[in-house]
């Protein structure tokens, strides 16, 4: 049986955030940092804006007042369906001030995906952007109201103008008084891709977020004068927890951009004299096409330690491993430790980490094993999977360690190197794609008898999705010829773009092992060896999620 969340008695005695919550944090930041820039909005088009820490508190209090006036109560779920923008930050903190729960959804979700997420979260209302408003209004009729940023912009007209859908500016009202601090109250639901066909809602408490902010700031050695250039999406753990919250904890400044742009990156970095940056595999590869200027970066936060790239970009790197459930960099490197290129680092001092074989025994140096993480639920590890007690309990072993589903290799010098995923997950440009979810979507086509989805190595995006499809036997020759395109169109309508297959390959039968299990390892070998274009293949657009390579 997994350990339960922290008890009330234990919270009073041992929780470092007892009597403290996100609202308390905001008040203290406003008092301590005041007029210091908290957020600089740097859009590629249109007017930018700067918010101080005092501005943050003012906006949060008035937004919370407006949400309360429209019926939102403590414990209610509020969907934030947005790409990066200031309002996505302000509403998240307004929810925390009010005691509501912010449900952050992937801005690239297709209509059916969005409908599932909103229903699963039991959300009562939503905040979104103009170009996403119609999709949200159409697929989520149960929402009491939808506030739309820049509602008059093109793309929102069909949704805005009713009592239910209105401009974001109307959400402001008189400031709402602060609630009594409760660090164990739910603060956020972040959706992560699991090994099943449906995403799981990961519940974070106020204490979870405060823990993540403080620990990440310390591990990355952030300072109050740091300026963090951030383009990673705020509906993912790395952009939000590793980067945004940690910079806030240090009292620094976040320069927030809507997404990654290769051609604009260095200009922005120089203009704002950025000292901290965040990178993923795709963006570091893309930036190699640009000359590296004399910049002010002290450190980049990355997912993989690479001394050659560190030297090429003339910047130290703090790499690490983490996932939504564990909030932070549980495995972390520092610029002064280790020589292993490709490694993710050593265990954080704040967690207990085990690497075990199939029998639960610790592996030796040079061996690969399953990664388990020990911590306290609701503090250093997520509280629960939303509405799924059984999956929550099954995710912990008998000793209370969280089963991450990832495998790592122990190096002789104590470092760890990511090996593979026990779960059938494909990593596309920084996004996790569940092969099971894509397979379930394609299998709904009556013209498909069987389908298997795997990842194919890609120099730019790390991996892309490849679908092996067995056509229904009653399909005619012309219908069979058109099947790859039909699969692609079906995925485009039902899945976020980065989840769609880059290649759809028709095959007479799927390879099997044992008692009939599909041989995914064989398919991965085929995908890796195959050229990018071949008979029976259709190519999707580049799948980069919230990133842009231009």
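^ Assign residues to that structure.
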């Amino acid at each position: 049986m997994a350990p339960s969340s922290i008890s009330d008695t234990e919270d009073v005695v041992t929780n470092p955030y007892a009597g403290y919550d996100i609202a308390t944090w905001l008040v203290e930041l406003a008092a301590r940092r005041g007029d210091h820039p908290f957020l600089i909005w740097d859009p590629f088009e249109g007017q930018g804006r700067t918010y101080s820490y005092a501005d943050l508190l003012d906006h949060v209090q008035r937004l919370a007042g407006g949400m309360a006036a429209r019926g939102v109560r403590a414990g209610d779920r509020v969907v934030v369906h947005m790409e990066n923008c200031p309002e996505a930050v302000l509403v998240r903190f307004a929810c925390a001030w009010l005691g509501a729960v912010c449900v952050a959804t992937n801005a690239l979700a297709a209509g059916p995906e969005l409908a599932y997420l909103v229903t699963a979260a039991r959300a009562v209302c939503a905040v979104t952007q103009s170009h996403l408003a119609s999709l949200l209004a159409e697929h989520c009729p149960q929402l009491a109201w939808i506030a739309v940023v820049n509602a008059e912009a093109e793309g929102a007209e069909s949704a805005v103008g009713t009592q239910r859908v209105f401009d974001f500016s109307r959400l402001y009202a008189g400031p709402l008084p602060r609630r009594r601090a409760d660090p164990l109250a739910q603060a956020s639901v972040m959706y992560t891709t699991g090994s099943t066909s449906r995403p799981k809602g990961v519940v974070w408490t106020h204490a979870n977020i405060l823990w993540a902010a403080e620990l990440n700031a310390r591990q990355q050695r952030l300072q109050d004068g740091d300026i963090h250039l951030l383009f990673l999406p705020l509906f993912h753990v790395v952009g939000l927890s590793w980067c945004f919250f940690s910079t806030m904890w240090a009292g620094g400044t976040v320069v927030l951009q809507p997404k990654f742009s290769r051609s604009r990156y260095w200009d922005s970095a120089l203009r704002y004299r950025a000292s901290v940056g965040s990178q993923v595999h795709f963006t570091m590869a893309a930036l190699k096409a640009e000359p590296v200027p004399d910049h002010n970066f002290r450190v980049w936060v990355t997912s993989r330690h690479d001394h050659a790239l560190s030297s090429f970009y003339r910047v130290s790197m703090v790499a690490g491993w983490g996932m939504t459930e564990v909030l932070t960099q549980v495995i972390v490197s520092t610029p002064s430790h280790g020589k292993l290129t490709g490694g993710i680092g050593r265990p954080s001092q704040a967690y207990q980490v085990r690497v075990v074989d199939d029998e639960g025994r610790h592996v030796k140096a040079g061996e690969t094993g399953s990664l388990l993480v020990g911590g306290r639920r609701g503090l250093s590890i997520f509280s629960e999977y939303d509405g799924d007690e059984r999956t929550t309990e099954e995710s912990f072993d008998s000793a209370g360690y969280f089963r991450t589903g990832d495998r790592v290799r122990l190096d002789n010098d104590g470092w760890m190197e990511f090996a593979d995923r026990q779960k059938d997950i494909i990593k596309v440009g920084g996004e996790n794609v569940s092969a099971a979810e894509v397979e379930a979507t394609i299998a709904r086509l009556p013209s498909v008898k069987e389908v298997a989805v795997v990842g194919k190595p890609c120099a730019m995006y790390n991996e892309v999705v490849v679908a092996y499809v067995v056509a229904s036997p009653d399909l005619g020759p012309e219908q069979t010829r058109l099947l790859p395109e039909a699969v692609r169109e079906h995925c485009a309508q039902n899945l976020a773009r980065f989840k769609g297959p880059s290649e759809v390959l028709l095959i007479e039968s799927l390879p099997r092992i044992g008692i009939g299990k599909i041989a995914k390892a064989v398919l991965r070998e085929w995908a890796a060896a195959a050229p990018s274009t071949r008979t029976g293949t259709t190519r999707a657009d580049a799948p980069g999620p919230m990133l842009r390579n231009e």
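The first strand starts at residue 37 and ends at 41.
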